[in-house]
Amino acid sequence: MESAVQTQIVIIPADRIVDWESFHDVFDEALGFPGYYGRNMNAWIDCLTNADDAESGMVANPVARGDLLTLSLVDTAEFKRRCPEQFDALIDCTAFVNYRRREVGDGPLLALLIDGNFA
Question: What Pfam families would the database entry show (predicted)?
């Protein structure tokens, strides 16, 4: 019998994101990226691709191998309206992290928990 996948939920205060600088500030603060974090989406992808590798130091609180890191966005609908470029990049790059991991035989790692009404 397989064991159940556990998830670690990290709150992302998307209401504080107004541009690329604040996007990277918020994710860096929430996830504890290393001091050399490049503050671009390639660096974001690199950090989160390794969020289950404690030795890599890419996030302050890595998840166990096989578990999920769930990014819970606060005030998502307003974030999407205010920062459509950053919102789309978040969706695309989250999907790419999981794709990248699957390509090397690892399971998906990231999940998004999105609140709000998008109607």
Answer: Barstar (PF01337)
Tell me, yes or no, whether 12 lies in a domain. yes
Report yes or no on 34 lying in a domain. Answer: yes
The side-by-side arrangement of strands in the sheet containing 110-114 is 7-12, 68-73, 110-114
Alpha-carbon Rg for the chain, nearest whole angstrom, is 14
Position 1 in a domain: no
Label residue 99 by pLDDT band (50, 70, 90). very high
Q: What is the pLDDT of residue 5?
A: 82
SS (H, E, C) 33-52: CCCCCCCCHHHHHHHHHCCC
DSSP E strand boundaries for the chain? 7-12, 68-73, 110-114
